[in-house]
Amino acid sequence: MRYNWILFDADDTLFDFKRSARYALGQTLNDFKIDVTESNFQIYENINHEVWLAFERQEINALELRKIRFERFLEAVGEYRDPLEMNRHYLQLLSKTHFMLEGAVDLVENLKQKKYRMGLITNGLREVQRSRIAQAKMDHYFDVVVVSDEIGVSKPHLGFFEYTYEKMGVPDKTEVIVVGDSLNSDIQGGNNFGVDTCWYNPFEAANLTAHFPTYQIHKLEALMEIL
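^ that's the sequence the OP posted. Answer follows.
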């Protein structure tokens, strides 16, 4: 067994966040009498992506994130609604989703049976992530679950990984691997902390960053060949 600990990112690595987010946003737009169009989906997704990057850079906090993304979205589409009210509605809907990526449940079940220890490490809001993990019945697979909103620091910052490492019981770093879809949070964070990393890259995107994973996979089941 090359690794004893596998630290999985949650969204877009195990959980189908894009599907969940589109479902919750579509319902929110409909409930707030805003057109449910592909254009509005794209506007929100682009704004949300930029706001989360600012959060990961610690330029804004979680409370600001909750307001800014819908504030900017409403301004972009020329509508007036209460951004915090929209955000609360959206998060309530999002927290009830539990869509998983194909092969994710089979993978963690297989790893659990093989006695690997696993952690779930996510940049997310506590009321959303904890609920989604529980509703998907995934919490029992993981020895450690770390949500950035609960500890006040997000990936890729060292503080996030140091906190996780302590919760893991400080194993040898050579026994740990981080698996995630984000080069900027998962791979950069793992690299900076000094553990091996595996980039889950299902669409075979080019790596245009300065962050290089130890391994790269295009299907989740391919992780078994590395371990």
